[in-house]
Amino acid sequence: MLGKGGSPFAVDALSRKRVELARECRVPKVEIYTKMTCGFCVRAKRLLDMKKVPYEEIHVDLGGPKKAEMVERSGGRMTVPQIFIDGHHIGGCDALMALEYDGKLDELLAA
Ligand SMILES: N[C@@H](CCC(=O)N[C@@H](CS)C(=O)NCC(=O)O)C(=O)O
Fold it and tell me: Which of 20, 51, 52, 79 is most buried per CB count within 10 Å?
């Protein structure tokens, strides 16, 4: 708390710190459409688990409306996994691995 006569710069520093902390605490929304028999899905989930990134798994083994939703959201892709970060389509397992390899996945997860 800034007392009477305190520096206004202290308030600035405090609010900057608050924004910084909010960013650090931010949990990205990761969605992954999967099938139980899919090795690429296992690999993609393993990477997310290793990075301690929580995700929502959407099972499309039986087709149905969720599979149709996946195809629609991914611009016609029929294979699993299909991965989304904060609503942005990333692609499949290879695309996720490539982002990690290029050092860009953490940036995306923190953006
Ligand atoms: N290169 C793709 C390969 C994905 C792939 O081939 N997935 C298989 C399952 S492991 C698939 O969806 N096959 C068609 C199907 O199950 O309907 C990736 O990295 O995600």
Answer: 79
- pLDDT tens string 37-56: 999 999 999 999 999 999 99
Distance 55 CA to ligand 1 centre (A): 19
Q: Which is nearest to 60 in space by CA: 73, 49, 51, 48?
A: 73
The residue nearest atom 16 of ligand 1, judged by CA position, is: 79
Compute CA 4 distance to the chain's CA centroid, rounded to the nearest angstrom: 44
pLDDT along the chain (111 residues), means of 10: 60 67 76 98 98 96 98 98 97 98 94 81
Indicate if ligand 1 lies below 6 Å from the C-beta of 77.
Answer: no
Ligand 1 center from residue 28 Cα (angstroms): 24
Q: Say yes or no: domain 27-110 is CATH 1.20.1560.10.
A: no
Output the pTM of the full model: 0.82
